[in-house]
Amino acid sequence: MKAYLVKRALSLFITFLVVMSAIFFLARSGADPFAEFIESDPRIPPEAVERLRHRFGLDKPLWQQYLDFMVSMFQGEFGYSVTFRRPVFDVIMVRLPWTLMLLTTSIVISTIGAVFLGAYAAWNRGKKIDLIGTNISLFVRALPHFWLGMVFLLVFGYYYRLFPLYGVKTSGIEYANVFEQVKDLLWHLTLPLATLIIRQIGMYTLYMRGETLEVLGEDFITTAKAKGLSDRTVLFRHAVRTSLLPMVTVTALRFGFMVNGAILTETVFSLPGTGRLIYQAITSGDFFLLQGAFFITSITVLIANLVADILYSHLDPRVRY
Amino acid sequence: MNCMTKNRLLLILTLLVASSLLLTSVSTAVAAEPAYKPYGGTLIAPLPSDPSELSVFLRASTWSFVFLDPIYDPLYMLDPDNIPVPWLAKSAEVDSTGKVWTIELLDNATWHDGTPFTAEDVKFTFEHAKDAGYPRWSEVADYVDHVEVVDTYTCKIYLTEVYVDFISEILTYPIVPKHIWESIVTQPDFDPFTYVPPIEVLKVGNGPFILDHYTETVEAEYVANENFARGRPYIDKLLMPIITSPDAMLLALKAGEIDVHTWTVPLEALPSLITDPNIGVHIYKSGTMYHWGFNTMIMPFKDKRFRHVLAHCVDKDEIVSRLLYGYGRPGRFGVYPPTEMWPWWLNEDPKCGVYGYEFNLTLAAQMLDDMGWTDTDGDGIREYIDPDTGERVNIEFDIGPPIYDPVRVRAAEMIQEWLAEIDIKATVQYNDWPTTWSKITAEWDSPHKLDTWLLGSGLGVGSPDILRFRLHSSKTPNPNYYYFLNATFDELAERQAVTIDQDERAEIIKQMQEILAEEVPLIVLYHRNFPSVYRTDRFAGWVKPIQDGVNNQWSWMSVYLKELAVLKDINVVLEEFPSEVEKDATITFRVKLTDDDGNPLSGVDARLLIEGMAEPVKLDEVSTGVYSTSVETTGWTTGSYELSVQYTKDGFNDAITTLTFKIVEPEAPPPPSFWELYGTTVTGVVVLLAIIAVIAVYFISKKS
Asked: Within this chain, do residues B650 and B675 fall inside the same structural domain, yes or no?
């Protein structure tokens, strides 16, 4: 196991280096954070822009910029966002907790929901409940995030005034205690969470159903039934546990993409988050910020993969390292 | 400079300053219209994004300006009409050389921590900006030589050369507190380009609001500065929550959760907004020019005649009507934007080629034929004649719009279609914006340089000096992407920048526009108009600049809570309005507005919107308290239309009138009677027969 972990960590490290190198060169292929400086204010002399380029090391040869980037990255320095005029680390860290909170909650709830609904639909294959469930899942899966979010916002936020229309905090409010703050936060996160959870349940219920159906046709399920075990035991102790394996991979990947996975939800509900940040970094050509954001994304994806691998060895007796 | 000229210069500058003072008093008089304005309330004006820069020296994004403007104020402010007015300065006077300005400061202005605002702060701010070389303060670095403190409230600013826009361009930079910033900028590790001021530093400004707190990604909150030298704002607090979704912002406005929409309002939402009695709509006119630029160094654009042909190939009215739904103005060939502000710089009618650059594809084709640029090889594309080799080359080129803007993409496609009609092949390049931008700013002979492009460039309607900054030959390749190289234009551009006599300067600027209209290095397609929407039920006193939305610094100073104010009702008496109008006729709407005591109300801002109309029409006050407007119904289809008029006046509740009218086919005239149709013929025949009969009787009687 130890040998495997070391080998795996080394492979992930190499993957990480390749990814970061690719990001470095891709980001510089067309973008220039100072490109529109003069257009936005024609009074700025070109020399002033050159001074800025020099200050941020953009006048150095590309290979030197690459070396600087790699060295500073391993020193834990992500550079300075020229869009936000703040250290990249600070910009990301203000937003990352919101994204983690939103997506961890939505992934956990939607995974639990999808596992139960998918297994139940598979067990009732061909029955009315399966038909209805499958069609609803297909319908929800086809709904774009932002559309569902906008409908929720319009109906529950505007027409019924049940939930706030924007943000994570009631404007101008001063909380008397933590309880009030948490209550206000939950009130603000209800609609975005509902949007993410409903859509993800739609997506992964079908996946879980398919996996369970496959397992239900296996011999060991027939054996379990022949032993006279209850339906519930057969389904949840035998079928679902086996079907969960591929779900672990899928969930790990979803965790991996969580950093940039909620751009549209963040936009519709005006939530702070790293998804919008990456979008802003790309559109403004701020490759220092882009590198920092992708550093976090890559690390998350790689760690999630590693965790999935380790989980596999625990969940599947056939897998031993 | 002889004595007479010096005196004249002094006189003109004194007049300028005096007129500024006069304008301040006028603005104040307008703002002080209501009898009683209460203090209190929290105005909620969201930010669509966090401010990118927190330092006044680095601020570049719009939202950084919006965030910092309430905190830091300059010596002179641009008023809602873009005229510089004294703000934290009392006056600014120039000496006879035109290079030494004496600035007298208000003696009652203080920083938010109570420290007096003095000439030392002015000296520190300008000299630090110059030394640090901040790009956004480049004019200070270029023109300010040094600042001398004369006494606590007086300083002299020495310029490196005469600068006619000194007040509007340099004195409008914000001032920072020396006692806070001096210790910061003298730190050994201080980096001017990366310094982020902490909140404690931002809490010490000199503006009408004091920053209470700023939570990144959540909100910024300010409290009114009770000791502000120009009078405290009427509101107690200004709250700026971050709302990144324009749709959520619109819903929040309609729900009354915010007081003003600070993002682009979807045009299709406008009819429902204007009919809401609690929402006001202000249409403002942006000076940004959306234009079609050419690389004038390459053929066929190198040939001025061809650029004249292209000027006939663009239907700007069609672009404004089809793509902007009427929310815009066609661009002018003199480049300077059409505006009600600063009209004295505008050349109303520059000579536009031989035929006036009207949209006329037949004429354009004829002009190409006359040049010999015809299609000789039968491939459906005309050829130009290369002046160097004499070869015939197909007229083919690309147009690069930014793909993030569907209006410009569609405009490029429309131009492509128009050109195809006269056998010119233009190809729209759909590249991502960074690529398009790098292709626009490339050197003229780079293989990557676009032949033509559609770009939106800020012109403002401020100083006409912007023409020099954009189009002087020294500005190639950025922002003179067109490689417009014209020695006469350069000479005029340089001369106007140091011409203090405003009439003389205006003449020069008009000549520059003549050259631009003749040379056509670019074709300004349109300038956009934008609606700015705000709630009228909680606050009154919104300031509506021609070129800006109501979310501006002047509004923050002027708005006041309506519920605490003593408000009267506007009474509307309809004087003229037909319920039915014949198709293509003109409909006239006239009302009399009075207060509760029956006194006629002057100065009401009344706007009329008819269903389907792009833009509200302003009602003119034709006599005291009587307002009227006429609307042409040419091209309208028959049917019922709803008309809404909103009346707004400080100190009064908004009133709204909704009426319905019909457009009907003109009544067909009754069919003509037999006599009307044939009366003349019958009479003629009868008379003729009578004459024949008389003659016949005469001859018969003679024979017999």
From this structure: no
Does A44 reach chain B within 8 Å, measured CB to CB?
yes
Inform me whether the C-beta atom of residue B194 falls under 8 Å from chain A C-beta atoms: yes
Kindly report the CATH number assigned to the domain that includes residue B519: 3.10.105.10
User: In terms of domains, do B253 and B319 share one?
Assistant: no
What confidence score (pLDDT) does residue B394 get? 97
How far is residue B658's CA from residue B608's CA, in Å, rounded to a whole number?
10
pLDDT in tens, B403-455: 889 999 999 999 999 999 999 999 999 988 878 888 999 999 999 999 999 99
B553 in a structural domain: no
- How far apart, in whole angstroms, are the C-alpha atoms of residue A37 and residue B618? 38
Check CB contact of B78 with chain A, cutoff 8 Å: no
Kindly give the pairing relationship between strand B237-241 and strand B425-428.
unpaired
On whether residue B533 sits in a domain, the answer given is: no
Which chain A residue shows the shortest CA-CA distance from B431?
Answer: A30
The pLDDT-based confidence of A205 (bands split at 50, 70, 90) is very high
* Beta carbons of A42 and B469 less than 8 Å apart: yes
Query: Taking 60 as the threshold, does the pLDDT of residue B151 lie above it?
Result: yes
B362 vs A33: CA distance, rounded Å: 45
Residues B472-476, mean pLDDT to the nearest whole number: 93
Same domain, B691 and B650: no
State ipTM: 0.86
Structural domains of chain A, with CATH:
95-282 (1.10.3720.10)
Residues B691 and B628 in one domain: no
Instruction: CATH number of the domain at B650, please.
Output: 2.60.40.10
Q: Report yes or no: A184 at the B interface, CB cutoff 8 Å.
A: no
What distance in Å separates the CA atoms of residue A278 and residue A284, rounded to the nearest whole number? Answer: 10
Task: Say yes or no: B582 and B468 in one domain.
Answer: no
Per the document, the length of chain B is 704
Half-sphere exposure of B82 (CA within 13 A, CB side): 18
List the domain range (segments joined by +) for residue B108.
3-271
pLDDT of B32 higher than 50: no
Q: Counting Cβ atoms within 10 Å, is residue A253 exposed (0-12), middle (13-18) or buried (19+)?
A: middle
Q: In angstroms, what is the C-alpha Rg of chain B? A: 32
Give which of A101, A166, A286 to mutate to test B binding, by max B Cβ within 10 Å: A166
Q: What is the mean pLDDT of residues B461-485?
A: 89
Q: How far is Cα B56 from Cα B137, in angstroms, rounded to an integer?
A: 10
Residues A115-125 have a mean pLDDT of: 93
Whether residues A44 and B142 touch (CB distance < 8 A) is answered with no
Nearest chain A residue to B471 by CA: give it. A42
A with B: how many residue pairs have Cβ under 8 Å apart? 134
Q: To the nearest whole angstrom, how far is the Cα of B241 from the nearest Cα of chain A?
A: 6
**Residues 366-405, chain B, touching A (beta carbon < 8 A):** none
Q: What's the structural domain count of chain B? A: 4
What's the gap in Å between the CA of B434 and the closest CA on chain A? Answer: 6
